[in-house]
Amino acid sequence: MTYQQAAHQILQREKNPMSLRIVAQIAFEEGLVRSRKEGMTNHKKVNSFIETVRKNIRDIIHNEPELEHPDNDFNLIVIPEKLEKAEIPEEHVSVKEDSSSIAYMETHGKKRG
Predict the structure, then answer these.
(1) What sign has the CA pseudo-torsion 9, 87, 66, 55?
(2) N or C: where does the chain have the smaller number of CB atoms within 10 Å of the terminal CB?
(3) Would you say 97 and 109 are in contact if contact means Cβ atoms under 8 Å apart?
(4) Can you say whether the dihedral through the CA atoms of 31, 35, 41, 44 is positive or negative?
(5) pLDDT at position 37, please?
(6) Cβ(33)–Cβ(3) under 8 Å?
(7) What are the tens digits of pLDDT across the range 10-55?
(8) Contact, 45 vs 21, CB < 8 A?
(9) What distance in Å separates the CA atoms of residue 86 and residue 63, rounded to the nearest whole number?
(10) How many Cβ atoms from other residues are within 10 Å of residue 18's Cβ?
């Protein structure tokens, strides 16, 4: 499964715009994706996921299944057809990228690391 496909699957299940960092963390935690390079730190894997999905959205050509950044917030992603009726949960509003990751981990009982 590609990073794009994993992000789309997670967004379909959660039914709301989400922090791209949180989507990446979920994708790796659930084993939906894995890094091509062995020995990468979790931080580098997550950043690679984020940059790949951002590039796909920006360049359009590889944006399949289609995703968007709502309100030009490059830290959030959403499935376009769900954008109009979706509310952004408070814990996914990105003041800082790291704060949304912390909120996800606290909500889901994960330890930072």
Answers:
(1) negative
(2) C
(3) no
(4) negative
(5) 84
(6) yes
(7) 999 999 999 999 999 999 999 999 988 888 999 999 999 999 999 9
(8) no
(9) 20
(10) 24
